């Protein structure tokens, strides 16, 4: 038994080391990571912080007169919209892809009160800088919560709303115990390439890993290998607290904008699931039910369910995702 345990420890160490070896360290603002399109920065002051908000603004050769803004999830940044952006631009859309403050190439402030209203205001500032009066808004995962708040605050700026496997379709406080920001920070500090991959395998890809998933793992795993990681982990803790404490699910019935829900029904993502009582955990993140419930709450909304698809349809089943998206916005 001792020999077996020793062998398992060695094997785990070798696998972890191999996974880390293929990931290169990345600083807090991904300064030496090249995004798929030219990156611009909006410089502004917020909450007594001098901030830089990164964004890509990709224009078509033959414009159709429409703009679409793509909002990333919590474990991602604007880079993972590369293929979506390319195909939208080819269809004549102007595509704007911001990195929210605390994410990607944008600033990672230490003293910042993160709120979905603040992120929505920051996002509006990018559109104002670009003199864009109206846009289609697509939000994935946490970006779905940002997109919801943005639409509720600035309905006059939103032509159509698309929510792709958004989190926040349920109130996590009603399931999971609260954790302090300090506790969340200590938890974030424990992340490694292996823990991130295990999480993505479980919730995103149903334990089937493909080569095309690796770049999006490398981006967040690379942070854990850099001396800047405590800075990144602190903002990750602050934004986890934001998600837990600021539900949007009670306000879906206030959305009057034409809305599409694209829902991978295999998804089981739920914030704080590990802190919920064992008997409640299986009830969390039931997207095959949450999608239908949310459609009923948003008057006139359309639901496209993608069977046996996880948390990131635009990565896992891109053709099906894009067909649903383009059919709604063309």
Automatic annotation (TrEMBL):
Give the range the annotation lists for the signal sequence: 1-21
Q: Which InterPro entries match?
A: AB_hydrolase_1, AB_hydrolase_fold, AB_hydrolase_sf, Epox_hydrolase-like
AB hydrolase-1 domain mapped to chain residues: 67-216
Q: Which domain of life is it from?
A: Bacteria
What GO terms describe the biological role, i.e. biological process, of this protein?
Answer: acylglycerol catabolic process
Which keywords does the record carry? Hydrolase, Signal
One Pfam entry name: Abhydrolase_1
Spell out the Gene3D superfamilies in the cross-references.
Answer: alpha/beta hydrolase
| A GO MF term | monoacylglycerol lipase activity
Which GO CC annotations does the UniProt entry carry? membrane
The record's section on PANTHER family has: HYDROLASE, PUTATIVE (AFU_ORTHOLOGUE AFUA_2G14860)-RELATED (PTHR43798:SF33), MONOACYLGLYCEROL LIPASE (PTHR43798)
Q: What is this protein called?
A: Alpha/beta hydrolase
């Amino acid at each position: 038994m001792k020999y077996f345990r020793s062998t398992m420890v060695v094997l785990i160490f070798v696998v972890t080391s191999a996974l880390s070896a293929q990931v290169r360290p990345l600083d807090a603002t991904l300064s030496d990571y090249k995004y798929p399109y030219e990156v611009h920065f909006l410089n502004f002051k917020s909450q007594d912080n001098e901030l830089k908000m990164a964004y890509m603004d990709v224009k078509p050769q033959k414009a159709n007169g429409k703009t679409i803004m793509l909002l990333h999830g919590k474990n991602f940044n604007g880079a993972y919209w590369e293929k979506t952006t390319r195909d939208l631009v080819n269809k004549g859309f102007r595509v704007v892809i911001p990195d929210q403050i605390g994410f990607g190439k944008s600033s990672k402030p230490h003293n910042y009160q993160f709120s979905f209203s603040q992120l929505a205001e920051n996002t509006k500032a990018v559109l104002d800088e670009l003199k864009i009066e109206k846009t289609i808004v697509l939000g994935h995962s946490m970006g779905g919560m940002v997109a919801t708040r943005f639409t509720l605050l600035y309905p006059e700026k939103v032509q159509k709303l698309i929510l792709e496997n958004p989190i926040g379709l349920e109130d996590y406080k009603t399931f999971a115990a609260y954790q302090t920001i300090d506790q969340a920070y200590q938890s974030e500090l424990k992340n490694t390439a292996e823990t991130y991959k295990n999480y993505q395998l479980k919730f995103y890809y149903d334990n089937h890993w493909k080569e095309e998933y690796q770049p999006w793992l490398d981006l967040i795993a690379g942070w854990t290998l850099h001396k800047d990681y405590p800075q990144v982990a602190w903002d990750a803790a602050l934004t986890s607290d934001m998600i837990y404490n600021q539900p949007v699910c009670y306000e879906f019935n206030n959305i009057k904008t034409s809305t599409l829900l694209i829902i991978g029904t295999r998804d089981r993502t739920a914030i704080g699931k590990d802190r919920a009582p064992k008997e409640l955990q299986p009830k969390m993140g039931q997207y095959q039910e949450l999608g239908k419930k949310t459609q009923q709450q948003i008057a006139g909304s359309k639901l496209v369910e993608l069977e046996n698809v996880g948390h990131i349809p635009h990565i896992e089943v891109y053709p099906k995702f894009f067909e649903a998206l383009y059919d709604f916005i063309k």
